[in-house]
Design goal:
This protein is mainly β and 180 residues long. The protein is built from no helices and 14 strands. The protein has two domains: 82 residues, Immunoglobulin-like; 83 residues, Immunoglobulins (Immunoglobulin-like). The chain has a four-stranded antiparallel beta sheet, with no helix packed on it. It has a four-stranded antiparallel beta sheet with strand order 11-10-13-14, with no helix packed on it. The chain has a three-stranded antiparallel beta sheet with strand order 1-2-5, with no helix packed on it.
Length: 180
């Protein structure tokens, strides 16, 4: 009867039936990764609640969750459930180059995640070490790179800057068309 919904890589929502009220007691919630029970965390929840979001969890991890109704009126047995968080989504997982012309091309990437604050698109001709950077808002998944040299191969690297400060990069090669 205790179950989870809205499971992500770092959180899930627990739901349970209304057993207590504000006046008749409270719940003690204990949860830990099944592989490391010593990392148990405990939380107390008002008797009026029937749901709670647990966050700051590890990705791809199974958690053992125990809900203990602490009632001053009736005895309720503890309720348990197991919830496995999802794998952490990584962006960019793919970078696509399209609409290539002599002086520009279009760069797009996926997936777009809420956890990404911004993207940096670095590009420069190969071989060479002159690199330019475009900053792209984290809500967008494409940009146009312009003012390029015709008939040139460019290395394009899309870096996702996560809100946590972590960064993930993926590169692709792009070739501009021959000029007139």
């Amino acid at each position: 009867r205790l179950h989870a919904t809205d499971v992500t890589s770092s959180s899930f929502r627990l739901l349970w039936p209304q057993l207590l009220s504000q006046e008749t007691g409270y719940y003690t919630l204990e949860y830990a990764p099944t592989a490391v029970p010593a990392r148990r965390r405990t939380q107390q929840v008002s008797g009026a609640h029937t749901s709670l979001v647990l966050s700051d969890l590890a990705p791809e991890t199974t958690y053992e969750v125990v809900l203990i109704p602490e009632s001053n009126v009736h005895y309720f047995p503890p309720q348990t459930t197991r919830v496995t968080t999802l794998a952490e989504e990584i962006s960019p997982a793919q970078v696509l180059i399209s609409e290539s012309g002599p002086r520009s091309f279009h760069v797009s990437w996926a997936p777009v995640l809420d956890s990404v604050a911004s993207y940096q698109v670095l590009y420069g001709p190969l071989p060479g070490n002159s690199v330019k950077v475009l900053e792209v808002d984290g809500r967008h998944n494409s940009t146009v790179v312009e003012h390029l040299a015709p008939n040139t191969t460019y290395l394009v690297t899309v870096t996702a800057v996560y809100r946590s400060g972590k960064e993930k990069s993926l590169s692709a090669k792009a070739c501009t068309q021959e000029g007139e």
